[in-house]
């Protein structure tokens, strides 16, 4: 059993955790008030992943959800205490080698409205509707001719 690599970021109403597992199957996510469990099988080698996260703060399990794409599983954890920032995902201050901060999606959310879950749904729908087989061949795309 291996830990799945994950990135996380904080928002006003929710915390998002993206597990970077390609071609996942048998995905199971169990949300509890102070922790959540993630497990799946991924890749052609059928590698088993299991993560248990003791959370920094409490969540509302019934309002938390996850979506699977070809490349990852994105979890939206609904905060019990809206507006309270989470300086870290885990209760324990020790650094997990499988967990990193998603700085691309991290932002100052002080003035955000309650749009996190609808944005999550829109993003998930967009990712699910995108195919990966018809991408253009980008070999040599970075080669530019300088005059």
From TrEMBL:
Q: Which SUPFAM superfamilies match?
A: HSP20-like chaperones
For this chain's UniProt record, which GO biological process terms are given?
chaperone-mediated protein complex assembly; prostaglandin biosynthetic process; protein folding; telomerase holoenzyme complex assembly; telomere maintenance via telomerase
Nuclease: is it a keyword of this entry?
no
- For this protein, the Enzyme Commission number is 5.3.99.3
Q: In which pathway does it act?
A: Lipid metabolism; prostaglandin biosynthesis
Q: What positions does the domain CS occupy?
A: 1-90
From the UniProt record, list the reaction(s) this protein catalyses.
Answer: prostaglandin H2 = prostaglandin E2
Keywords from the named record: Cytoplasm, Fatty acid biosynthesis, Fatty acid metabolism, Isomerase, Lipid biosynthesis, Lipid metabolism, Prostaglandin biosynthesis, Prostaglandin metabolism
- Cross-referenced Gene3D superfamilies, in alphabetical order? 2.60.40.790
Q: Name one GO cellular component term.
A: nucleus
Pfam short name (any one): CS
| Origin: domain of life | Eukaryota
The record's comment on protein family reads: Belongs to the p23/wos2 family.
Protein name, as recorded: Prostaglandin E synthase 3
Q: Which organism is it from?
A: Oryzias melastigma (Marine medaka)
């Amino acid at each position: 059993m291996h830990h799945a690599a994950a990135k996380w970021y904080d928002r006003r109403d929710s915390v998002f955790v993206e597990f970077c597992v390609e071609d996942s199957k048998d995905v199971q996510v169990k949300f509890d008030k102070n922790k959540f469990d993630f497990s799946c099988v991924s890749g052609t080698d059928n590698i088993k992943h299991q993560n248990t996260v003791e959370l920094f703060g409490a969540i509302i399990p019934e309002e938390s959800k996850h979506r699977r794409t070809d490349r990852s599983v994105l979890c939206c954890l609904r905060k019990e205490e809206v507006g309270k920032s989470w300086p870290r995902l885990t209760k324990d201050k020790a650094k997990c080698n499988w967990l990193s901060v998603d700085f691309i999606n991290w932002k100052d959310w002080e003035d955000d409205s309650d749009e996190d879950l609808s944005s999550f749904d829109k993003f998930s729908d967009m990712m699910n509707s995108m195919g990966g087989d018809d991408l253009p061949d980008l070999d040599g795309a970075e080669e530019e001719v300088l005059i």
